[in-house]
Amino acid sequence: MQLRSLILCQQPETVALAVRACRELGVELHHCSTAKSAMEKFSLQRFHGVIIDDQDGPNAATLLKDLRASSNGKKSVIIALARTDAVLEAVFGAGTHLVIYKPLTHDKLRNGLRAIRPLMGKQQHRGSLRVKVHIAANLTINDTEHIPVKILDLSSGGAALLLSSPCPTVKSLKVSFALPGEQTIITAAAELVWKNVWGNVGIAFVNTDPGFTSSVSRWMKARPAAK
C-alpha cells in the first residue's frame, strides 16, 4: 500500500526536508500552502498523514478544524512542526498525534516521522538498527532537574522514552543508563526530537563519546530483537 501524506507549509526549505524524509520512509508527500487547497486535495483522495507547520497559525488552525469535521480527515495521523516553546496541551488538544520540534534537520524529521509511520500504515517500517527494550534510565534536564524514565526503543543514534512526569521546557538533556546485563552506567547528551500524544518522547544522541556509541551498537547487534 502506498502511503500518502500532505504538508501545509509556506517555507520551501522545510518542504524540501519533509519531501526527502518522506521519500526515505516510502511515503508520497503532497505540498499545499493554504488550508483551502489542502482540503480540496482531501476531497479527491485519502491522505494517511498530515504535516502542519505552526508558523502559519491561521492556516494551521483552519486546516485542523476542517480535518476534524471531515470523515477522511479524522482517519489521518496529524503531525505538527512546532517551536520548542509551543504549548503542547494546546497543540495536542487540536487533535495532533505527534510534535516534531524546531529547528528542523533532515535527521530530526526522518526520526520523528519514523516514530509515527506504523500508525499511518499499520505496519513497522524497517530503518536503522533498533531494539525494543524496557530500560530504567535517568534524564537530566537543563543540568538541574533529574527524572526517572523508561527507554522503550533504543538505537545507536537515539531512543524513545516514557516519562514519569511531564517534560518541562528543555534547553539541554542528558540520559544515563546501564544496558541490560551490564553494570557500567553510560551517559550521552541528547536533544528532544519529538513528543507524542501518549506521553512518549524521542531523543537523538548528540556529541556522543565514541565509547558510548560503540557500547550501544555492540550490545544491540547481539540482540535477537534487533531490526
Distance between the termini: 21 Å
- Strand adjacency order, main sheet: 6-7-8-11-10-9
**CATH C-level of the largest domain:** Alpha Beta
Per CATH, the architecture of the largest domain is 3-Layer(aba) Sandwich
Q: What is the H/E order?
A: EHEHEHEHEHEEEEEEH
The percentage of residues in β strands lies in 35-45%
Taking pLDDT < 50 over at least 5 consecutive residues as the criterion, the unreliable ranges are 123-128
Structure summary, number of beta strands: 11
Helical proportion? 25-40%
Radius of gyration: 18 Å
CATH topology of the largest domain: Rossmann fold
The main pleated sheet reads as: 6 strands, antiparallel, barrel
Estimated structural class: alpha/beta
- Bulk shape: elongated
- What is the number of domains? 2
| Average pLDDT | 84
Q: Number of DSSP helices?
A: 6
Please name the fourth-level CATH homologous superfamily of the largest domain.
Response regulator
Describe this structure in words.
The chain is α/β, with parallel strands linked by helices and 227 residues long. 30% of the residues lie in helices and 36% in strands. The protein contains six helices and eleven strands. A six-stranded antiparallel β-barrel has the order 6-7-8-11-10-9. It is elongated.
